[in-house]
Design goal:
With about 325 residues, the protein is α/β, with parallel strands linked by helices. It has 3 domains: about 5-90, Diphthamide synthesis DPH1/DPH2 domain 1 (Rossmann fold); about 95-205, 3-Layer(aba) Sandwich (Rossmann fold); about 210-310, Rossmann fold. The protein contains 11 helices and 13 strands. It has helices spanning about 5-15, 30-45, 95-105, 125-135, 160, 180-190, 205-225, 240-255, 270, 285-290, 305-310, and strands at about 20-25, 45-50, 70, 85-90, 110-115, 135-140, 170-175, 190-195, 200, 230-235, 260-265, 280, 300. The strands form 3 sheets. The protein has a 5-stranded mixed β-sheet, sandwiched between helices. Bound molecules: iron/sulfur cluster. Iron/sulfur cluster binds next to loops. Iron/sulfur cluster binds near residues 155, 156 and 287.
Amino acid sequence: MDLQLDRAISEVLSRKAKLVGLQMPEGLKTKARDFANGLEVATGCQVIILGDPCYGACDLRSLKGLDLLVHVGHAPIPDLRPSIPTVFLEVRMDFDPVDALSMNMDKIKANVGLVATAQHVHLLPSVQSALGSAGRTALVGNGDSRIALPGQVLGCNITSALSVMKEVEQYIFLGSGYFHPLAVSLGTGLPVLCIDPYRGAVDDISEAREKVIRQRYAAMAKALDAKDWLVLLCDKPGQRRYELAVRCRDVLRNKGMRADIVQLNEVRAEALLPYRAEAAVSTACPRLAIDDGPHYPIPLLTPWEMEMVLGLRDMDEYRFDQILSGETPD
Ligand code: SF4
């Protein structure tokens, strides 16, 4: 795995940066000290490892006096303007998806959309051409301005998948884990075949989708009688949907509920306890409600789900919450 230390060295030297912040996601943090030492030895700069959890490019940290932030492991979110100079070092993971595709061609429909995380998006052209040779039409869509690369999806933004949705009957996701393909499945309702570099092809994402949908309706059912709500606002730059938080609070108050906005950096179940609310709506990362919500002591809903509970949306029209272009202005 190439963390692009050479590129970090040349960026530090060319910008004459003296104090450098290093941010890495949890999965790469074991490599942070070697990376930092390599950077310091090669450039003479001082590196501070920013050790708080980092789940995406939505979560850029700053530090007083920093000349440069080196963010490893995520592609930039283009519509997010960092408050300090930042260099993004994407980590590309290589594997040969063509063999896995060939072994599973019977599961691949005639018209498919291709999606991947930033780590694997460079493999999509070879998949597209292999599928073309096998008589399939494979499309790679472009996302909105929160998406840096064609075919890339985030856990909170599947606009690249949606851009080709009318022309496809299935998606193929390159990468590991269910986090991203679940977003595609929830947001499009179409089947997703996951080509996982470690486990081979996995196509039971629809089961995971059904489980999540059941959990979401259970959370909404619990919130039906709630009269006292919290509206959660996250202060991470790429998650801070302030206008949406104000709108949620106003909608709740107009419906006669008690509702207050609580701003947090890390949204955690324990942080909500002192407020003794009966339900909460999260305008932070949409995956907090979906992935962590079942472990909260009170129902934690997305804004769309809150509107369903309040009778402002049809209960049959479930919609996956996304953070879209322009929703997190500076
Ligand atoms: S908001 Fe959530 S899903 Fe979106 S990039 Fe950040 S951590 Fe990932």
